């Protein structure tokens, strides 16, 4: 198993999405967080099983939700964002390119 670390940006993405879902329906935010951690477990089991999407950054889908965990594999898997599939390529490119600082492992 490969260790998986969430950056502060990824944690903020998860918290914001969970709050939005919770406002839509009671319990949906908690269900979202549960599915996020299912995706984290899947990354831990096989981080190189996900193809590279932008440079060396890979994405794992969050089950039952239109989100992906965007991550790099260094000595560990470093999740840089949990982003809605409709907007993620632009935001990921900004984070990788330094427009939004990319946290180093």
Itemize the secondary structure elements and their pairings.
Elements: E1 4-6, H1 8-24, H2 28-45, E2 52-54, E3 57-61, E4 67-73, E5 77-84, H3 88-97
Parallel strand pairs: 1-5
Antiparallel strand pairs: 2-3, 3-4, 4-5
Give an overview of the whole structure.
- α1 packs antiparallel against α2.
- The two termini are 18 Å apart.
- This protein is 43% helix and 25% strand.
- With 105 residues, the chain is of the alpha+beta class.
- It has a five-stranded mixed beta sheet.
Question: Any key phrases for this structure?
Answer:
105 residues, 25% strand, alpha+beta, YaeB-like fold
Strand order of the largest sheet: 1-5-4-3-2
The string of secondary-structure elements, in order, is EHHEEEEH
CATH superfamily: RelE-like
Q: Which structural class do the helices and strands define?
A: alpha+beta
Number of domains: 1
- Which stretches are poorly predicted, pLDDT < 50 over at least 5 residues? none
- By DSSP, the count of extended strands is 5
Strand content: 15-25%
Short structural summary:
The chain has 105 residues and is an alpha+beta fold. The chain has a single domain, classed as RelE-like (YaeB-like fold). It has three helices and five strands, in the order E-H-H-E-E-E-E-H.
């Amino acid at each position: 198993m490969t260790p998986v670390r969430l950056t502060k940006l990824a944690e903020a993405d998860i918290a914001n999405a969970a709050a939005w879902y919770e406002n839509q329906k009671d319990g949906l935010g908690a269900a979202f967080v549960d599915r996020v951690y299912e995706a984290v477990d899947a990354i831990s089991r096989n981080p190189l099983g996900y193809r590279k999407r932008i440079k060396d950054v890979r994405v794992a889908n969050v089950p039952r939700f239109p989100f992906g965990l965007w991550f790099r594999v260094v000595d560990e898997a470093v999740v840089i964002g949990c982003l809605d599939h409709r907007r993620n390529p632009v935001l990921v490119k900004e984070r990788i390119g330094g427009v939004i600082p990319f946290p180093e492992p």
